[in-house]
Amino acid sequence: MEATLFDAAAPTVPLAERLRPRTPDEVIGQRHLLGPGKPLRRAFDTHRLHSMILWGPPGVGKTTLARLVAGAVDAQFVVLSAVLAGVKDIREAVERAQAMRTGGRGTVVFVDEVHRFNKAQQDAFLPHVESGLFTFIGATTENPSFEVNPALLSRATVHVLKSLQEEDLAQLLERACAELQAPPLTPAARDRLVAHADGDARRLLNAYENVVAAAGAVATIDEAGLERALGEQLRRYDKSGDQFFDTISALHKSVRGSDPDAALYWLARMLDGGVDPRYVARRVLRMASEDIGLADPRGLQLALQAAEVYERLGSPEGELALAQAVVYLAVAPKSNAIYTAWNAARALVRKDGTRPVPDRLRNAPTRLMKDLGHGAGYRYAHDEDGGFAAGERYLPDELPDQTFYQPVPRGLEIRIGERLAQLRATNATRRQG
């Protein structure tokens, strides 16, 4: 029996639009918002709307939910794109809402990518949201805490949308297959396509539509068919927003937590997503100083060498050196003693006054400076027993003794701690005597 072929010329509406849910029950995913008793489900069931910010990655249903909210109360749905719209468009939306109010009908103003509006444009909505002229819904892929004005944010409820899970995308694929009457996917091809979508429903449907159009007269669509239609698999990765910072945070915490396998996973995620390996190299250097420190000074050396190797080899060869450094730092003994000591020293300097350098520690390159007493009484450590001027103080005279650096009992810092304890004890004995 000949397989039914997809006629690309017949339906002019994109598959993603044809499968857009018409009711809340048709929405796939977001059960934390649409499940029984959940916030948006209550809004639909009670027909009581509220202004909101829908925050989530691309292709998870932000626009769909906004449309459904408007449809639930039979409201006029006005769409503004923050990429293209200006104050004039906002003014026109307000006028349309006022006209609808006169006719007894409400309005929902939906602003896509609201984070792209500047402060003045966002502020233009405030009086109308407060007066109840329309219900405001903003959609954003960026953290509203940083990208939406506090005044507007305080008047809207933030709903966080999540990337679709694999089972959600598989269910969506079934709907798409039925809509297109297309040949079935092999299990391996289905899994590959779901992985390619990376939680993005729109990406899944667009890719599937292309795959079906290119499939020809086949009984099933396999991985080879996907390769012909999609080419090199790419991951969705936000190289500047929250996903970026969350992923580098996960890499750093995996190294700090001594889990080389997790560290390699997050490193691969970042590099696979297109992050500049030089940025990763800089962060690895930071990890070596912040979390390993003097417990294993070779960690910083290896991290620096990895950065230099990458500069010489580039990608992909140089990425192996970064992986080597990440694994070494993950399994190395950990110490944040230097990090803690440095922060404590900086905090003291910021809050303390500008104390004068004691005369004995001052530089005296000229006769005048020597006559003024600069350097007088300085004890040259190399001339003392053991190369240590016991009892000498190197802090400002009026500043109490400080203990910023406290070695941890791990790695090389065990020996450093023993040596430092001995020196401090000798100092204390000499000063008491």
Write the layout of secondary structure elements.
Blueprint: H1 15-18, H2 31-34, H3 39-46, E1 52-55, H4 62-72, E2 76-81, H5 87-102, E3 107-112, H6 119-123, H7 126-131, E4 135-140, H8 144-147, H9 150-153, E5 157-160, H10 166-180, H11 187-197, H12 201-215, H13 223-230, H14 242-256, H15 260-272, H16 277-292, H17 298-313, H18 319-331, H19 337-351, H20 367-371, H21 413-432
Parallel strand pairs: 1-4, 1-5, 2-3, 3-4
Summarize the structure.
The protein is an alpha/beta fold.
**From the helix content, strand content and strand pairing, which structural class follows?**
alpha/beta
Q: What does the radius of gyration come to?
A: 32 Å
User: In angstroms, what separates the terminal alpha carbons?
Assistant: 103 Å
SS strand fraction: 5-15%
* Average pLDDT figure: 87
**What is the CATH topology classification name of the largest domain?**
Rossmann fold
CATH classification class of the largest domain: Alpha Beta
Q: Share of helix among residues? A: 40-55%
How many discrete domains?
4
- The second-level CATH architecture of the largest domain is 3-Layer(aba) Sandwich
List the main descriptive attributes of the protein structure presented here:
5 strands, 433 residues, Rossmann fold, single chain, 52% helix, alpha/beta, Zinc Finger, Delta Prime, domain 3, 4 domains, five-stranded parallel sheet, disordered N terminus, elongated, Helicase, Ruva Protein, domain 3
